[in-house]
Design brief:
8-stranded parallel beta barrel; about 270 residues; TIM_sf; about 45% helix; alpha/beta; gluconeogenesis; binds glyceraldehyde-3-phosphate; EC 5.3.1.1
Length: about 270
């Protein structure tokens, strides 16, 4: 018998995570304005139902930290990248030591834009995952296939190979704090959202592989997100899938009203 789709409350105890990846948008003053607008728009019941994370440019993190601390805002926040190194002669890089000091909970690792524009391969992604864990940060590990791989029908194998590579040598006690984001590259910023069934197929396979790599218990607790053209009007159908625990949201996270709709997906 087919597995019934579950709502947030029945998601095997995994709190849904809606994470806004602002990418290279918003200076620190604009970041303050958007953070305040979101805080004003969201209420305690929203934060009780869903974890809301802001993944902001490095130059915005201190401003977000100051607001969150001063006004006791209920956002988690973090970076969009992390250096594989902890300190030293690595011009332009930002270490996990620095991010932890800024109160970050999360660091995105292996986003397809880093893989594509900065040549990050599996070894680099693996080193960055380990760097995050060394400093108590939770990596949001991005995996997903390009259009050619999807058209060849190899999307599941490709994505699981990325997962295997990123987690090579990562012990279970760390992997328990992982978040995985399945982002088909062909759906990022294109308006071409994967169908809920497409998202479920790969998110379910990711959870299955986590069970093989670690344990069933770990796999049932790790959150697997979908990312790629998520908007207020398509998020509910994606979230109805049993193995999708949230969304990594790009463009729509820059508009307060749209991101609030995404956070409130269960009330649509
Ligand atoms: O990290 C977020 C993803 O790249 C999705 O971006 P998008 O929502 O603009 O398609």
């Amino acid at each position: 018998m087919a597995k019934e789709p579950k709502g947030a409350a029945e998601r095997d105890g995994r709190t849904p995570l809606m994470a806004g990846n602002w990418k290279m948008n918003l200076n620190h003053l604009e970041a303050i304005a958007l953070t305040q607008k979101l805080a004003f728009s969201l209420d305690d019941p929203d934060f009780e139902a869903v974890e809301v994370a802001l993944l902001v440019p490095f130059t915005d993190i201190r401003s977000v930290q100051t607001l969150v601390d001063a006004d006791k805002m209920r956002f988690s926040y973090g970076s969009q990248d992390i250096s594989a190194h902890d300190a030293g002669a690595y011009t332009g890089e930002v270490s996990g030591v620095m991010l932890a000091k800024l109160g970050c909970t999360y660091a995105i690792v292996g986003h397809s834009e880093r893989r594509q524009y900065h040549g990050e391969d599996e070894a680099v992604v693996n080193a960055k995952v380990k760097a995050a864990f060394r400093h108590g940060l939770r990596p949001i590990l991005c995996v997903g296939e390009g259009l050619d791989v999807r058209q060849a029908g190899e999307h599941v194998g490709h994505t699981l190979a990325q997962l295997d590579g990123a987690l090579d040598g990562v012990p279970e006690k760390n992997a328990a704090d992982l978040v995985v984001a399945y982002e088909p590259v062909w759906a990022i910023g294109t308006g071409e959202v994967a169908t809920p069934e497409d998202a479920q197929e790969v998110c379910g396979a990711i959870r299955g592989r986590l069970g093989e790599l670690y344990s069933k218990e770990l796999a049932e607790n790790v959150r697997v997100l979908y990312g790629g053209s998520v908007k207020g009007d398509n998020v509910a159908a994606i979230m109805a899938q049993p193995d999708v625990d949230g969304a990594l949201v790009g463009g729509a996270s820059l508009q307060a009203d749209e991101f609030v709709k995404i956070v409130r997906y269960s009330k649509a």
